[in-house]
Design brief:
Helix 8 runs parallel beside helix 9 and helix 11 packs across helix 12. The strands form two sheets. The protein has a nine-stranded mixed sheet, with helices on both faces. It has three domains: 73 residues, DNA polymerase, domain 1 (Orthogonal Bundle); 186 residues, Rossmann fold (3-Layer(aba) Sandwich), CATH 3.40.50; 54 residues, Arc Repressor Mutant, subunit A, CATH 1.10.10. It is of the alpha/beta class and 364 residues long. The chain has 18 helices and twelve strands. It starts with a helix and ends with a strand. Helix 8 links the parallel strand 3 and strand 4.
Length: 364
């Protein structure tokens, strides 16, 4: 076994957290030496009591290492330890970096230019639209979008970045052999092709509730800043922003409807000093110079605005900023239903509007 194999094995020992992991390796000089140590020596390390020392001594190194390595091979995963140059620099620089990360996909040097996008699992039409547009805007400039592949804002952010031809990272609160939520299997496979899925947990670890706060610190740790889009006062997204602040990273927030409880968290962040964000450029202008000069793409030429007829303009003006049902659009525009339906399709093909579920429409 190599020293890296011993790191992977030590990461599996039940009850041994990241802080004690690093403390043990530092005390004994290597992960291999930790497994060779006697109980009395293990007990000399601060925080290592009887239960943890016994867990290390009784750990079946050969069996568990073989099992984990089979998991890694069968899932086409890679493993990086915090001592390796391939380990992401942004993450290495937080105060409690995971000793081991599992990766499916690729982590590139350019991914140092990364922004986390997080928010509610049940966003409004407005929340979905904003998450998609800002994530796409970041991706078009070469910024990697980081999120947690949860339902809602997370999933929309990943898709927005990839649809714009950019890269994205999904950080799991489980081992990489598990897909959670299960309906995101296709999204996960696409992320692997346009970025990476990442976890600090052993391959077979289930998505227990206690894993997700730890997952959130990695989302913020991989990123230069965290953007919140629609989050309640007790949202997990706010946990991510607290980690970001603790890590010395920027916090951004999109203002939301004051009557929507899902906007209270984001609006509160703005009150406390988070930068108000309306578009991707609001985030980009806050990035360090070395990131802008080394990793970001030159601004693409503005897309030519499609020519619109008077009727098309009337239809667009009839669509509320949040979203409007087709019946409301027809009534407000006073255009006959059959004609309005044809014009809406034309506008959608031109990329001016977007149809949502339930025959709802929103301006792109």
């Amino acid at each position: 076994m190599t020293e890296k194999d011993f790191w992977i094995a030590l990461n599996i020992v039940p009850g041994l957290g990241k802080t004690l992991f690093h403390r043990l390796v530092k005390f004994f000089g290597s992960a291999e030496s930790v497994f060779k140590a006697k109980e009395k020596d293990l007990r000399q390390v601060e925080g290592i009591g009887e239960s943890l020392s016994r867990a290390i001594l009784e750990f079946n190194l050969s069996r568990e290492s073989e099992k984990e390595n089979n998991y890694i091979r069968n899932n086409n995963a890679k493993v990086f330890i915090s001592e390796e140059k391939e380990y992401p620099g942004n993450l290495k620089n937080i105060f409690d970096p995971p000793p081991v990360i599992y990766v499916q996909g690729e982590i590139l040097e350019r991914d140092a230019a990364a922004i986390a996008v997080v928010g509610t699992r049940s966003p409004s039409h407005y929340g979905k639209l904003v998450a998609e547009k800002i994530s796409a805007g970041l991706a078009e400039k070469g910024i990697t979008v980081v999120s947690g592949m949860a339902r809602g804002v997370d999933s929309v952010a990943h898709k927005g970045a990839m649809d714009a031809g950019g890269r994205t990272f999904a950080v799991f609160g489980s081992g990489l052999s598990i897909v959670y939520p299960p309906e995101n299997i296709r999204l996960r496979n696409r992320i692997i092709q346009q970025g990476a899925v990442i976890s600090e947990f052993p391959m077979g670890r289930k998505p227990d509730r206690g894993n997700f706060p730890a997952r959130n610190r990695i989302i913020s740790g991989l990123s230069l800043g965290t953007l919140v889009i629609e989050a309640g006062e007790k949202s997990g997204a706010l946990i991510t922003t607290q980690f970001a602040l603790d890590q010395g990273r920027d916090v951004f927030a999109v203002p939301g409807n004051i009557n929507n409880p899902k906007s209270k968290g984001a609006n509160l962040l703005i009150k406390k000093g988070a930068k108000l964000v309306e578009k991707a450029e609001d985030i980009i202008e806050e990035l360090p110079f070395y990131i802008k000069s080394s990793f970001l793409k030159e601004k693409a030429a503005a897309r030519e605005k499609p020519a619109l007829t008077e009727e098309e303009e009337r239809l667009i003006s009839a669509i509320d900023p949040e979203a409007s049902h087709i019946d409301a659009i027809i009534e407000k525009s006073r255009i006959p239903a059959s004609r309005a339906s044809a014009l809406l399709l034309t506008l959608e093909l031109k990329g001016v509007i977007k149809q949502l579920a339930g025959k709802m429409f929103v301006v792109s």
